[in-house]
Write a structure and sequence with these properties.
two-stranded antiparallel sheet, 11 helices, 2 strands
Length: 314
C-alpha cells in the first residue's frame, strides 16, 4: 500500500494543528493585553503574518535555489533575510508591547531590500530566456512571486513595528490610518498571490477541481479588503472577517493537497528528494494564511478607530 496519501493527510493535519495553535495563542495574547495598549493585538497578528510569510519564502527559496544548485552566491540572500524576518516576526508576536527593537526593524528592512532586488533578478531571468516574456518562460523561469512575498513580509513587519511603537488608539502609517494602509496592503498582496497561483495551476491544467479554490476564494478576500480600505469606518466586518478566516484555512489545507500531489508523482514519497523539488510547492499555500492575518489585523484597527470616533461624537 502506498504511503503517499497517508503522508499527505498527516502533513495537512500537522500544518493545520500548528497553524491553529499559533493563531489561538496570538488571539489569547491579544485579549489578555492591557487595555491601554490598544494596538497590541493587531500588532501581534501583523508580526505573526510577517513570520508566517517568511517561513513560506524561506522554504520555497531553499527548494528552488537548491534546484538551481545555488549557482549564483546571491541565491543565499533570501534564505538569510527570510530567516531573520522569521525570527523578528516571532519575537514581535510574543513581545509586541516591548520597547523598540533595532534587530526587528533592520531584519524587516533587509527583507524588503533583498526581496526587491531578487524580484529584479527574477524578472531579468525571465526576459533573458529565448523568446523573452512568454507563457513558457513565466511557467518555468524564476518565479516572480517568491521575492515579492519576501518584500511584503518585510513591509508587513515594519508596519507591525510602527503600530507597536505608537501604542495609540488610532495608529497611523505614512500619515494615514494604519488599518486602512494594512487593508490596502493585504488586498494587493492577496491579488498578486492569486495571480501566481493561477499561473501555476493553469500550467497544471487545473486537473484537480480543488485547484480552482485559490483562484476563487482569495480574490473575494482581496476585494473585501479593498472595500474596507475606502469605505466609511465600520464597527463590525463580520462577513469580511469570516471570509478571511476561510482564506487562512485554505492556506493550510492547500499544503495537504500539495503533499498529495507530491505523492502522485513517480516514486511518490519514496522518491521525496526529487519530488519535493519538482512537485507542487508545499510552502506556497500558507502565504494566503499569512496575508489573511494581515487583513484581520487591519479590520481590528479599523473597528478600533470607528469605536473611538463614535465615543467622540456621543
Amino acid at each position: 500500500m502506498s504511503t503517499g496519501p497517508v503522508a499527505a493527510s498527516l502533513g495537512a493535519l500537522v500544518f493545520g494543528a500548528v497553524g491553529g495553535v499559533a493563531l489561538r495563542v496570538v488571539a489569547e495574547a491579544g485579549r489578555n493585553a492591557r487595555k491601554s495598549d490598544i494596538a497590541v493585538h493587531p500588532a501581534r497578528l501583523t508580526h505573526s503574518s510577517a513570520a508566517l510569510l517568511a517561513v513560506s519564502v524561506l522554504s520555497d527559496s531553499a527548494l528552488g535555489h537548491y534546484r538551481g544548485s545555488f549557482e549564483n552566491p546571491g541565491m543565499f540572500a533570501p534564505l538569510i533575510s527570510s530567516t531573520l524576518a522569521l525570527s523578528a516576526g516571532a519575537d514581535g508576536a510574543m513581545n509586541a508591547s516591548a520597547a523598540r527593537c533595532s534587530f526587528r526593524r533592520w531584519s524587516f528592512a533587509l527583507s524588503v531590500g533583498v526581496g526587491v532586488t531578487g524580484l529584479g533578478f527574477h524578472v531579468y531571468n525571465v526576459f533573458r530566456r529565448p523568446g523573452g516574456l512568454t507563457w513558457l518562460n513565466l511557467f518555468y523561469g524564476a518565479p516572480l512571486g517568491a521575492p515579492a512575498a519576501l518584500a511584503v513580509s518585510g513591509l508587513v513587519g515594519l508596519a507591525a513595528e510602527r503600530i507597536s511603537e505608537q501604542k495609540a488608539r488610532e495608529p497611523t502609517l505614512l500619515g494615514f490610518s494604519a488599518g486602512r494602509v494594512l487593508a490596502a496592503m493585504s488586498g494587493l498582496a492577496l491579488a498578486g498571490t492569486v495571480m501566481e497561483a493561477a499561473l501555476f495551476h493553469f500550467r497544471g491544467a487545473f486537473q484537480n477541481p480543488f485547484m480552482w479554490a485559490p483562484v476563487t476564494l482569495p480574490p473575494v478576500a482581496s476585494a473585501l479588503m479593498a472595500k474596507a480600505t475606502v469605505e466609511r469606518p465600520a464597527l463590525t466586518h463580520s462577513f469580511t472577517r469570516a471570509w478571511l478566516w476561510m482564506t487562512a484555512a485554505l492556506g493550510f489545507i492547500g499544503v495537504g493537497f500539495h503533499a498529495y500531489g507530491v505523492s502522485r508523482a513517480m516514486g511518490g514519497w519514496h522518491n521525496w528528494s526529487q519530488n519535493l523539488i519538482d512537485g507542487p510547492p508545499l510552502p506556497a499555500p500558507p502565504s494566503f494564511s499569512a496575508l489573511a492575518l494581515t487583513g484581520l489585523a487591519a479590520l481590528s484597527l479599523i473597528e478600533t478607530e470607528a469605536n473611538a470616533r463614535d465615543r467622540q461624537t456621543a
